[in-house]
Amino acid sequence: MADERGYWGLEIGQAGLKAIRLVFGDVQGRVTATAFDYVRHEKLLSQPDAIAEEMIPEAIETFLERNDVSGDIVALGVSGQNALARFIQLPPVEANKVGQIVQYEAKQQIPFALEDVVWDYQTIGGGADEDTGFMLDAEVGLFAMKRDLVDKALQPFISRKIEVELVQIGPLACFNYLCYDLLGIRPGTEAPEEGDHYIVCDIGAEATTLIVTDGSSIWIRNVPIGGTHFSRALVKGMKLTFAKAEHLKCNATRSPDPKAVFQTLRPVFNDFLAELQRSIGYFSSVNRDAKIAKLIGVGNGFKLPGLPKFLEQALGYPVERIEAFDALDGDQTLADELFLENIPTFVVPYGTALQAMGQATMKTSLLPKEIVVARLIRRKKPWAVLACSLLLAAFSLSAFGYGLLMQSVSAARWQSTEQTVAEFNQEAAAKKAAYGEQEARIDDLKNRGERLLGSVETRVYWPELFRAINAAMPDDENIADPNVIETLDRVRIKSVTTTKVPSFEGWFLAVPQVSKDLMLESEREAAPEGEGYIVTLVGEHFHDTRAKTKDPAEKADRHGAGYVALKVVKPLQEWELTRELDTDGDDIPEDVAVPIRKIGISHVAFLTRTLDDVEHPAEIIKQRREEAENFEGSGGAFDAFDPTRTFDPAGGFGRGGARGTPRGGITRGSARARRGAETQAEEELVRPTEHTRFLIEFAWIPTPPEERADADPLLAVEATEGDGTTEDGLTDETLQDPDPA
User: Fold this and answer.
1) Residue 155: how many CA atoms within 13 Å on its side-chain side?
2) Which of 159, 226, 513, 684 has the fewest CB atoms within 10 Å of its CB?
3) pTM
4) pLDDT tens digits for 596-616?
5) Order of strands across the sheet that contains 134-136
6) Helical residues (DSSP H) of 5-146, grouped into ranges
7) CA-to-CA distance for 580 and 575, rounded, in angstroms?
8) Which of 77, 5, 78, 68 is nearest to 37 (CA)?
9) What's the pLDDT tens digit per position in 209-234?
């Protein structure tokens, strides 16, 4: 649709040049905007140092550089402040004599000689009586502007050889917009009888124009207060330059002191409201049956913060600022940020372009008649004879040419060529299909490769997790005498299970507060963010060395839950642990830093613990040996804490479990050495030994190596002192509580 004729509506205001290009839309009764432009002046034309004779041509030149108007219709909207609008109620008169009556009324109503003005009229409302042929209840709108002002507005276009086909004043352009876009009145249709009246309030730079209409009648009034009056109030009240006052006016709500800004503008607000109330009150007194539906704000002056709400509260009916054109299409233009920001200022160009398209009810134009006649004569110069001669010659040549063409395009001449083309197209289609099959096969192979290699980078995380758990277990090489197992610094991990969760919120809420108190201070208030794994450790120990100390606080850490908190929970909360490991296979352990929280472990929760007395552990050792020997066929290990839950029997991680035996256990020696020791233990006398079983869970969000910090980001927290509280936050009473809940 690039070659279709467009209709440009232009307006040169105090702030800049606004233009919009319309074409007929695909949907009947709608138009499409294909382009727009907004060329701002360097300063307002009303400012004392502004030179309009230079700034207006510069704006037009910039517009023509950006847009190609060749072949399009150009319509110009001019300010209504310099125009005259009169509405005359005609007496019953014959329809063919309306022009004579208007000519007489024009001499009476226009305060200048008719030769010095450009004027036009249009009959509004009423109609000819079919029986008498007289116009009844007819009203005539008379519109005029001084000729020198019209010539001044047209001169920049004439000098650039741009032909303006229509000149319309701003209030009538607003009337065109209201009828077409809001009331839905199309050419050939009439406005509804006794409809609601709408007020269009066009706030200009120096003055405001009010247009009150119901689609059939028009009432126009100019108010001598415009946007610059608000700016001048800020200049005077806040001692600002005009440019800064303009910026502050448009951004009053974002100023350091909005209250002071609105306080300064309040007198202008009140004056503006008083003028509106006076004008609307006069209209209501003349048209007592008119019901005003709402006021529609036009012009960028209506963007002043708080103005619509202020007017709505004072006037008592809805006040709306134009945010969109309901009957206008054109995705590219309507979505442009510059257009959306300044859409209230495009009402006049929009209404002017609608009239140029013949889609408006208003038909008047202030384009000088001599220009219209000159163009008409130029376009109809007597070239008809030459055109007929050329047409006759063309017909003769055409007849001869058709005879030649019939021979050149005969089926017999081109049959072999068409066959060759058909075979070529068939071969090309076959090769294209084969190419597509190969492409699909290659894509399938790529997808398979990505699935096979997708987990290479992350599979190192699991060995690191088990290595961290193993490093956090207590370390004791003394297993020579199992009869003193309560003195061994060792726990037995029966199972390690993991559960992947999309969020840790539910798990964290279920953790008891007493377990949260053992977490790091920075982890007690909120669950870790993101998805990850809940790692569960189920274990037991027989450590009990309370007899070796008399300090009550130290006793808590030498048995039961206190020992687990000190030897298992606390190491799992370290950033790194240093352990002796044989990493190079030379049977010589070296000091190695094993990352704990560094790999993503957090929120270690000591959930349950039970204490009971068992007989001499020789029987337990024997049972453990049988479990280890029969592990491969067991299919799982029973968890004493929850009989309905099955855990992975491949746990059993202690410091010796991960290096000495895959299943862990309570010893580091070989299976044969343990069996010998256990056999000897079976022959010893039995005695009661404290047996502690526990369950620990923690969150694990695998951290990629490149994202791991070198140093612990958490600040060191001093251990709680006094009140019988241990280093890890457990009291003697808490540690001795056998309740697994």
Assistant:
1) 10
2) 513
3) 0.53
4) 999 999 999 999 888 877 765
5) 93-94, 134-136, 127-128
6) 52-66, 98-109
7) 17
8) 68
9) 999 998 888 999 999 998 888 888 88
